Amino acid sequence: MHIGHQQLYLGIDGGGSKCKAVIVDAEMQCLGEGIAGAANPFHSVDNAQQSIVDAALLALADAGLEQSQINQLIAGVGLAGVNIPKYFDLMNAWQHPFKEMHLATDLHIACLGAHNGDNGAIMICGTGSVGYVSCNGDSLIVGGHGFPQGDTCSGAWLGLQAVQKVLLAADDLGAQTTLTKRIYRALGCLDSNDLVSCLSGQGATYYARLAIHVFDAADEGDLVAQQILAQASNYFTAVFNKLMAKEPARISLIGGLQVRLKDWLATDIFSQFSEPMQAPEIGAVLFARQQSK
Amino acid sequence: MHIGHQQLYLGIDGGGSKCKAVIVDAEMQCLGEGIAGAANPFHSVDNAQQSIVDAALLALADAGLEQSQINQLIAGVGLAGVNIPKYFDLMNAWQHPFKEMHLATDLHIACLGAHNGDNGAIMICGTGSVGYVSCNGDSLIVGGHGFPQGDTCSGAWLGLQAVQKVLLAADDLGAQTTLTKRIYRALGCLDSNDLVSCLSGQGATYYARLAIHVFDAADEGDLVAQQILAQASNYFTAVFNKLMAKEPARISLIGGLQVRLKDWLATDIFSQFSEPMQAPEIGAVLFARQQSK
């Protein structure tokens, strides 16, 4: 494929489980995409750099371009973990193979993507949860902090709450709930001993898979599940209010839980969300174009 | 050392972090002790069996006995994990090197130890938490279930609650608390990002080390810490009531938190606890003597 002398851009969205890459031309036409492994420098700077290069090479191949053309790309790289200055500096000092590299947090590029390059706010509710606002030359992260100590209202948090309530009910120390039979069925458990065996050593992703049962149970009138979602909604509202105090022009809800969660938010909050316009990796390209002279 | 034809007993208390062994004579005089590695068959049946043998051989050496005398020992073996039938059966099918082996849960031998061979109830509050009662031919486990999904009121649970409150305060989504400066100082953190870095990948033992700060803060009037302990006390009381409904003759509180926790329990509950009389590994010997013909 011949691209001529047109400048090409690489957008990277890297997180704890995977790294997505997109290559676009000067008119923002997508030429190719690639997905590689984890790219959170907090866990491993070397792995993050390798995953970014792997994803970029896959996107070049997908676009019908030569691998050597990696040095022609202006890269916008959004990464989890680089909100911590140490990891921002380590990644920014990288002798990267691109023409230029412009580094930002995964939150910033997701926000730019959601608002098509403009400032605004986002709330992410998937396996994890976090709020972010960038406007008027200021930015603020609200929440996050990981599992199990933070990420309230995330899928992992909902799953953990559900399991806690099931175990309290099993000891007759808490209200009975249909979450018990739903979660036992989902995990193939016969009793609470089985459940504890299943949970041993599991992390956020495992718990997040149980979140759907909280929504299902609540929809069918289970009071315990409804209380969990009411607590989630209260936290969500508090984060929302913190973000809106910065007066962003737009706010978007991103992540796997958005479809189910909307039913449990107050109407006057739900109505203020706008659909995200672009994916985070496109947000990374928009960031690179803003930063590149 | 010459023991003659007197029967010797081995008591084993095996858990997720270590395995304690004691050898006593027919008059319950302690001849030797040994400590080896983890012995929870839920994590590894092979390791549990190896740790039990290692601890027994160390205790034999400590007693000035020959390693070959392991086959003269009547062993009482109390293990974490064997409340799950599968692991009880796997351990019970072991071609063990002892003269006899009598297997029970770690809870049962701790309970027998606390009440010097009699029935009764125990509550354990250390890194984990659990209640157990054995009387009138019946036994019941209340609570437990591990971290982070269970073990309410344990050290790990208290530490996690503290960290959650610190992170909420850092986001200005919860009340300010002196737990922030206490925990930052304890972990050498400057801010919430540092704290999240410290917590990454940590388990129950790490969180449990933070529990002392909840007690210290509460003692000095911190409302957030006091609320955490009030919640712990409520749960503790509920477990206590479940156990006492079985009408045990005695109940004892065991574990690292007992000294600090007592101040936060209602007087009418605290006053019902009796000092444990023997260590769990001695309880294992008592169990073996009860079971052996």
Specify which chain pair forms the largest interface: A-B, 27 and 27 residues
Distance between the termini of chain A: 27 Å
In spatial order, strands of the major sheet of chain A run: 3-2-1-4-5
Q: Estimate the global geometry of chain A from the Cα principal axes.
A: globular
Question: Which descriptors apply to this entry?
Answer:
9 strands; 19% strand; four-stranded mixed beta sheet; homodimer; five-stranded mixed beta sheet; 293 residues; alpha/beta
What does this structure look like?
In chain A, helix 2 (85-92) links the parallel strand 4 (73-79) and strand 5 (100-105). Chain A has 293 residues and is of the alpha/beta class. The two termini of chain A are 27 Å apart. Chain A is 42% helix and 19% strand. Chain A has a five-stranded mixed beta sheet. A four-stranded mixed beta sheet of chain A has the order 8-7-6-9, sandwiched between helices. The first copy, chain A, contains twelve helices and nine strands. Chain A has helices spanning 45-62, 85-92, 106-114, 155-170, 179-187, 192-199, 204-208, 211-219, 223-244, 258-261, 267-270, 280-291, and strands at residues 8-14, 19-24, 30-36, 73-79, 100-105, 120-125, 129-135, 138-142, 251-254. Chain A binds chain B through residues 42, 83-84, 142-143, 145-146, 148-150, 160, 163-164, 167, 171-173, 192-193, 196-197, 199-200, 235, 238-239, 242, and chain B through 42, 83-84, 142-143, 145-146, 148-150, 160, 163-164, 167, 171-173, 192-193, 196-197, 199-200, 235, 238-239, 242.
